[in-house]
Amino acid sequence: MRALRFHGPGDLRLEDVPRPQAGPGEVLVQVEVALTDGTDLKTFRRGHPRLLDALPSPFGHELCGVDVATGRRVVAANSAPCGACPPCVRGQETLCESLRFLNGAYAELMLVPAAIARVNLHRVPDRLPAHVAAMVEPLACCLHGVEAAGVEPGDAVAIVGAGPIGLMLCACVADAGGVPVVVGGRPERRELAPSFGARAGDGEGADIVIEAAGTEESWADALALVRPGGTAVFFGGRERGAALAVDAYRLHYEELTLRGAFHHAPRHVRAALAFLASGAYPWERLVTHRVRLEDVPGLLADPPRDLLKAAVVP
Ligand SMILES: [Zn+2]
């Protein structure tokens, strides 16, 4: 079968690889559509400290496809917590000590390991299009991020970043009763904010700020915007060793709360699938391009200006 494999930064190749065979508990999925995301772009440029194992590595992790054994359309998240380690037992499943990440959505077939198939593989509701269902993983991350932010009804929530993740966070905040404001981003992306329950603004003095761009500047912006007594959530990952300068005076005398949010737990995956199926927001507007496997390296090397997410059809 054909699959894209990552050989190193900037080096993604379409190759013929052996057709995977499903063992006990595993589910072989024929990929109907995979989606690109910001993590793919970052990983393509510089590799990834957590998501990739040995090179060359399978690539891509957002997908919807057909369970070859049953003919049912399914989605799967890219990991599953073990349920038994100390963080899992504490209910902090995103910190699971055995978390391993599944890659390989940019291929004709993908084998979902038993550990993921058991808890994080779900049948897709009949009328939900594959390219919308495939957003379950990033939306699950956003639901976790908003849960971590502790949004209360009426809270002013600034979201720094207007990419697909920023816009999904807006929808999650709006549904939690918060008042989302998109800060920064390109004008054509800011125009999408109202469709996702938000408005564009400067976000100054927000009760909660959620950083969703993963850059040094956006992290600093998030910290600058939060009001005394407020909470800043750092959602966009940065490389190991990256620093954040914090004004200790503000942290202490303004009683700021700073916290990170990473990944998702099974409850967020289930909730995300239901949220997508609800049709409450125009999720399909986040998918702006449609490409073949052979087009992905070029797309990631030189992303079109109007790219939000691309649907990759094997
Ligand atoms: Zn665990």
Overview of the molecule:
Helix content is 28%, strand content 26%. It is α/β, with parallel strands linked by helices. It has two domains: 2-134 and 282-313, Medium-chain alcohol dehydrogenases, catalytic domain (Quinone Oxidoreductase, Chain A, domain 1); 141-260, Rossmann fold, CATH 3.40.50.720. The strands form three sheets. Strands 3, 5, 6, 7, 8, 15 and 16 form a seven-stranded mixed sheet that branches. A six-stranded parallel sheet has the order 11-10-9-12-13-14, with helices on both faces. Strand 12, helix 8 (216-225) and strand 13 (226-234) form a beta-alpha-beta unit. The structure holds zinc ion.
Which features would summarize this protein structure in a list?
Quinone Oxidoreductase, Chain A, domain 1; Rossmann fold; 11 helices; 16 strands; globular; binds zinc ion
Quick synopsis:
The chain has 314 residues and is an alpha/beta fold.
Ordered list of secondary-structure elements with their pairings:
Layout: E1 2-8, E2 11-16, E3 27-35, H1 38-46, E4 57-58, E5 62-67, E6 73-76, H2 86-89, E7 109-112, H3 114-120, E8 121-123, H4 130-133, H5 136-149, E9 156-160, H6 164-175, E10 179-183, H7 187-190, E11 199-200, E12 206-211, H8 216-225, E13 226-234, H9 248-253, E14 257-260, H10 266-278, E15 287-292, H11 296-301, E16 309-313
Parallel strand pairs: 9-10, 9-12, 10-11, 12-13, 13-14, 15-16
Antiparallel strand pairs: 1-2, 1-4, 3-5, 3-7, 3-16, 5-6, 6-8
Helix pairs in contact: 5-6, 5-10
The chain binds zinc ion (ZN).
Zinc ion is lined by residues 81-82, 84-85, 87-88, 96-98.
